[in-house]
Amino acid sequence: MSEGLKLRFPRPNPIVPAQSVAGRTLMLLIGIMTFLSCVTFGGVLLVQKSAMGWSADVGRELTIQIRPLDGEVIESNLRLAVSLSEAVPGVASARVLTIEESEALLEPWLGAGLDLSDLTIPRLVIVQLSDPNAADIVRLENEIAAIPGATLETHAAWRVQLNTMAGTIVVSGILVLALILVATTLAIVFATRGTMSTNREIVDVLHFIGASNRFIAGEFQGRFLLLGLKGGLAGGIAAIVFFIIAGTAMSTVVPETSSAQLGVLFGQFALGISGLLGIVGVVLVIAGLTAVTSRLTVRRFLTQIS
Predict the structure, then answer these.
(1) How many CB atoms lie within 10 A of CB 205?
(2) In a domain, 63, yes or no
(3) What does the angle CA 233 – CA 238 – CA 241 come to, to the nearest 5 degrees?
(4) Name one GO cellular component term (predicted).
(5) What is the pTM of this model?
């Protein structure tokens, strides 16, 4: 035999056909389900990050409100509130808002361009905390209460509402993810049973030559694992592209007012390393779910026809 002559053996055909309408349809379905799962996961993560940022910012700030009263010099009371605040441990700074800044806070409710000079607008002192845990809030509250017309707002109610909202969104996102996984599992079960019925003759031949149910189930599991990885990877990449496009559109296309409102809820649509790792985890979970579900379905099917 000459050196240039080489023997070529045909590659064995897989037991489960590599290309089929059912397989392509299932891969498309897995890709869509993975995309929805990743978008849901990313949205929940972004809202949770924003809520944590809000809570941290609110927790580091206190507001002292001083109402104008007859017989009281409000500027003197403002200076006293600032000096009392700065003397409390854990307070980084205290600043009096100007009248213009106070009026600007009312514009979202009253509108712009109004003459508010005839209104007795309370004056505000913003207190920044260097360490919320070390700050003596009780002492500050007692001292501020001695100033006529002054009250201290710790924003505790707002923090509770923010944490409640964030927790509700997280729970809702988990429920949506669970529903998507259930729907994916059902689709895999029906696709697997359909493939088994289509290849019933192949399964009968394998049984005839002595192949075990474990071997046959393993062949189907490998095929469906590959479908799960391909569909999951496509869905994961599509989700990443979606967040990139959404972040770009929010900063360039969406009007400034709407962009600011979305930014308050979702931040800058930046998933970060934790978000990307989460998407990779979702892809792997769905691929593993596809393989395990197909194997269990095949073994149950083989047990029924045996």
Answers:
(1) 12
(2) no
(3) 130
(4) membrane
(5) 0.69
* Alpha-carbon gap, residue 294 to 108, rounded angstroms: 57
Q: What's residue 305's pLDDT?
A: 67
- Positive or negative torsion for Cα 137, 138, 143, 148: positive
* 138 and 255 share one domain: no
Whether residue 84 is found in the same domain as residue 222:
no
Shortest CA distance to 46 belongs to which of 279, 235, 252, 286?
A: 279
At 22-81, the pLDDT tens digits run 677 888 888 998 999 999 888 888 888 877 777 777 778 888 898 888 777 888 888 899
The pLDDT score that the predictor gives to residue 17 is 56
Is residue 60 domain-resident? no
Residue 235's pLDDT is 92
Digit-coded pLDDT (tens) for 216-231: 777 777 777 888 888 8
Q: Which two tokens stand for residue 247?
A: 């972040």
159: CB partners within 8 A, 6+ apart: 55, 58, 59
Q: Are residue 37 and residue 110 in the same domain, yes or no?
A: no
Own/partner contacts of 303-306, CB < 8 Å, gap of 24 or more, are: 303/213, 305/200, 305/203, 306/207, 306/213
- For residue 149, count CB atoms less than 10 angstroms from its CB and return exposed for 0-12, middle for 13-18, buried for 19 or more: middle
Say whether pLDDT at 237 is over 90.
yes
Quick one: pLDDT at residue 14? 56
Separation between Cα atoms, residue 199 and residue 187, nearest integer Å: 18
Closest CA to 66 of 128, 8, 149: 149
3-state secondary structure of 148: coil
